[in-house]
Amino acid sequence: GALSGFASSICLQPLDLLKTRLQQGDSVPNKRCCSMIIHVTRNVVASEGPLGLWRGTTATLARNVPGIAIYMTGLNYVRTALAKVQYFAASPQPRVDAGRGSVLPKLNSQGNLLAGATTRVAAGFILNPFSVLKARFESGLYKYDSFLASVGVIFRSGPSELFRGFTASALRDAPYAGLFVVFYERLKKETSEPLPAAWSSSGTSSLMHSISAASAGGLATLSTHPFDVIKTKVQVRSEDRYRGMLVTIRTILAQRGVAGFFDGVSLRIGRKVLSSAIGWTIYEAVLMFMTTPSKT
């Protein structure tokens, strides 16, 4: 989990930064989405240089490496526990084939939804302070001296800042993670069943996991994006009109209408599709490697 979080964070930080910059404003864009992305990218590069697109990478790593490790480890434990409950267990239990498919515990759709949602929210609660720092570093609105200094500032600010935006994050993460696991497991099943046994290989499994995770990430992201916009504004804006989730929702509706809840959606979908493909392919490959007996 830590390895997959590190790889996706380093590769995809520019998409996260551009998404945050698009979401944090409150003016009505006078350009199309693609033009806005190009405009914001040029502004970042012009003012901060090409490496400015990786601003906040340290905060992202502090959030995502332990966060994804906790999430994936916890998800495995929760799924293992739920697999022992008849109501949540997949029926019939499929045969585990480490050379093809997956070694993760198998659940029905209800079990996958519950496991994904509860584990993601729990991990999000633990790492929420770093989620706030990640958003603020990416926004460019906060001038912290260093990452360690920013950690000290936010922890001295008390619970109101440490858990700022957590409600919106939970309302985004619970359905996202639940739907992702449901879609991912279903797509894995649908893509693996038609393949003849002769095609079984680690390469085939990795391709199957990558396609399934990318598709599941895109579908789950589109379903939950409005709460990502709300979370970003709550965490990076200090004005009273962004104090709290309900106040922020009213502000977005008044300023932008329903369209305001989909700012940066293409960037987030792109990031989630790629991060899901990278992260889950690495995660499942490492698990399969660790659980496959060595041939001596």
From TrEMBL:
- Solcar repeat boundaries? 1-81, 110-190, 204-289
What keywords would UniProt list here?
Membrane, Mitochondrion, Repeat, Transmembrane, Transmembrane helix, Transport
In the record, what terms sit under GO molecular function?
Answer: glycine transmembrane transporter activity
Cellular component per GO, a single term: mitochondrial membrane
Q: Name one GO biological process term.
A: glycine import into mitochondrion
Classification via InterPro entries: MCP, MCP_dom_sf, MCP_transmembrane
The compartments listed are: Mitochondrion membrane
How does this protein lie in the membrane? Multi-pass membrane protein
| Chief site of localization | mitochondrion
Q: Which PANTHER family match?
A: MITOCHONDRIAL GLYCINE TRANSPORTER
Family that this chain belongs to: Belongs to the mitochondrial carrier (TC 2.A.29) family.
The name on file for this protein is Solute carrier family 25 member 38
Q: Which organism is it from?
A: Gloeophyllum trabeum (strain ATCC 11539 / FP-39264 / Madison 617) (Brown rot fungus)
